[in-house]
Amino acid sequence: QVQVVESGGGLVQPGGSLKLSCILSGVTLDDYTTGWFRQAPGKEREWLSYTAKDGTTYLEDFVKGRFTISRDIAKNTVSLEMNNLNDEDTAVYYCAADPLGGTHELAFSHWGQGTLVTVSA
């Protein structure tokens, strides 16, 4: 059974940084693509990044330069490091996994429960 679990959310001041982690169980990163999404209050869920099975990473344009993706094969973990956060980054952040995946939420079959990131002074 595939399980996806995010962690690392919390309260951060504007300009601050936060690192989110996503642990997969039941499958390996070599076999599954992972993605990060977020949903701000009152808004639709939006795609942030996609990491292919070979480790190649794609980031949405509006987070390039601020967000970084990394993965630890041994720990079966993908991380989202976020820098220079602002209040528009306040959202529930989701990790998702799928054998194929893509740049839309419909492309992913397994989802974590989400972790809340609040950017506030």
How would you describe what is shown here?
By secondary structure, the chain is mostly beta strands. It is built from no helices and 11 strands. It has strands at residues 3-7, 10-12, 18-25, 33-39, 46-51, 57-59, 67-72, 77-82, 91-98, 110-111, 115-119. Strands 2, 4, 5, 6, 9, 10 and 11 form a 7-stranded mixed β-sheet that branches. A 4-stranded antiparallel β-sheet has the order 1-3-8-7, with no helix packed on it. The mean pLDDT is 95.
Describe the structure concisely.
The chain has no helices and 11 strands.
Describe this protein with a few key phrases.
globular, 49% strand, 11 strands, 4-stranded antiparallel β-sheet, mainly beta, 7-stranded mixed β-sheet, 121 residues
